[in-house]
Design goal:
317 residues, Arc Repressor Mutant, subunit A, alpha/beta, D-Maltodextrin-Binding Protein, domain 2
Length: 317
């Protein structure tokens, strides 16, 4: 059933005259009759009683009129609101991201959005690691409009809270462990979590909400073996107020421990003397846009749609 067919039915239900309905709809009277017959065939019963003198609704027609009018009006109201909202693109948008996501990919999304919405300027800024692990405070405070975040666990659900909206997954990246290039694990092309039992893991995900921590850096392996995390808070280890990716890489390079990360980390943040080894039994990291539910607007929704379309349209390598 098409929207135009419903419109023809509702117009005839109001006019109760095929000729007048045709004039209002700017179609032929024969087209009105044809459309009504098609609807009656689809529904399985007569919607109108037709005589030489009058046209009137059958009981079935009246039942359909009530439901069709309600649905038709709601759909048109939704269309009007969405069209109005779509035109309400703001003049600027602030987007935060982590360097480990790769500036090329982020810039490609931004360029595509600005080409589609030239009235809006996007301002990019890098996020500190703690803000990407828990972006809610910064988003609710309005420090940034959208945060591009890594969501552990294979989808975007780890980033969901009652006050945040998680957009479509833009990319999936396999998990890996970051090690010094001369580490014994570099003899393997890939590992499982059990291979990390004898090593200490640097775990900046202590800054993440509790429900995310196990997904970022597990405390046990799938077989039940315990994984050892650094006992000291990473901020005390680095003597910094903010945790950065480079600080974590430096700790690994200095032998303070290994770090669960993504396979593409060193592609985007080169660091001499380090290597990444894929982890086979961890779900991939998902890249997702996240924003505050109370601050959602047409610009944010348009950016999320553009980001999804840009990544999906990108050639695979």
């Amino acid at each position: 059933m098409e929207l135009r067919e419903v419109e023809v039915f509702l117009t005839l239900a109001e006019e109760l005259h095929f000729g007048r309905a045709a004039v209002r709809l700017r179609i032929t009277q024969g087209r009105v009759s044809q459309t009504i017959r098609a609807l009656e065939k689809e529904i399985g019963g007569a919607l109108f009683e037709r005589t030489n003198r009058q046209v009137r609704l059958t009981p079935l027609g009246e039942q359909f009129r009530i439901g069709a009018r309600r649905g038709y009006d709601e759909l048109h109201r939704a269309l009007r609101e969405c069209r109005a909202t779509a035109r309400n693109i703001t003049s600027q948008l602030r987007v935060g991201y982590l360097p480990s996501m790769g500036s090329d990919a982020v810039t490609g999304i931004v360029n595509a959005f600005e080409q589609r919405h030239p009235e809006c300027r996007v301002y990019l800024h890098t996020l500190q690691l703690r803000r990407s692990l828990d972006p809610e405070p910064a988003l609710l405070a309005g420090d940034t409009d959208i945060a591009l975040c890594w969501s552990p666990g294979g989808d975007g659900s780890a980033m969901k809270t009652s006050r945040l909206v998680v957009g479509p997954v833009l990319a999936y990246v396999p998990r890996a462990v970051l090690v010094p290039s001369d580490h014994p694990l570099t003899r393997h092309s890939s590992i499982v979590l059990d291979d990390l039992v004898d090593y200490v893991l640097i775990n900046p995900s202590t800054a993440a909400p509790a429900h995310q921590r196990e997904l970022w850096t597990p405390s046990t392996t799938p077989t039940g073996h315990t994984l050892t995390h650094t006992a000291d808070d990473i901020m005390r280890m680095t003597h910094q107020d903010e945790v950065t990716a480079n600080a974590v890489l430096t700790l690994v390079a200095r032998g303070n421990g290994l770090h669960c990360t993504i396979t593409t980390l060193l592609d985007h943040i080169p660091f001499s003397g380090l290597s990444v080894i894929p982890i086979r039994d961890m779900p991939p990291m998902a890249l997702v846009p996240v924003w505050a539910a109370t601050l959602e607007n047409a610009t944010i929704r348009a950016f999320a749609r553009t980001a999804a379309g840009t990544v999906q349209a990108a050639p695979s390598h």
